[in-house]
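Consider the following assembly input.
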Amino acid sequence: GENVEQHPSTLSVQEGDSAVIKCTYSDSASNYFPWYKQELGKRPQLIIDIRSNVGEKKDQRIAVTLNKTAKHFSLHITETQPEDSAVYFCAATDIFQGGSEKLVFGKGTKLTVNP
Amino acid sequence: EAGVTQFPSHSVIEKGQTVTLRCDPISGHDNLYWYRRVMGKEIKFLLHFVKESKQDESGMPNNRFLAERTGGTYSTLKVQPAELEDSGVYFCASSRARLAGEKYFGPGTRLTVT
């Protein structure tokens, strides 16, 4: 089955700096890669996602890149702000198999943005 | 629209007791998922309902866990009898569509088994 590795487990940056979180996956059949942000005490929320037919996707200060050959994808946050502090989870799944689209998650990265 | 709700938010029980968690998905969402995060580890899939039918229950850890979704609306996850390793945060998520329809998560139920 699919296995997703996520690094680093913790990341501390100064406000205004960039933050990069990396994930690798094992199953070449995976074709959908969402990123979730979980603030303390709150529910995980989708912040950006990418499908395997796209190499990069941007949404304001957030971008995700995907390298299918190497089976890795990364989350990039630019101009970080204190409200970006949260735990970020990457995930992978196959959305075309007709199955459950169950998400396989990484272990999460705790991002702290210091003012 | 109202989000996914879960009840209770916290539950502390003793080993051997029974606990039932409830999830109310967003209205109209046929797909309902249960996930669990054990302390410090990844969020893991438990099972998936499409309406009232179990589509995939490959993540259910053992037969102490029973999930139901009567009438295709809310779902319950019962753990009986609970063991120490069942402690964690149980998340429910729902989505309207397949093919990467956004999955909306609930706030989770924190279960502590002592």
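Chain A touches chain B through 26 residues (CB under 8 Å). Ask yourself how this observation constrains the way the partners meet.
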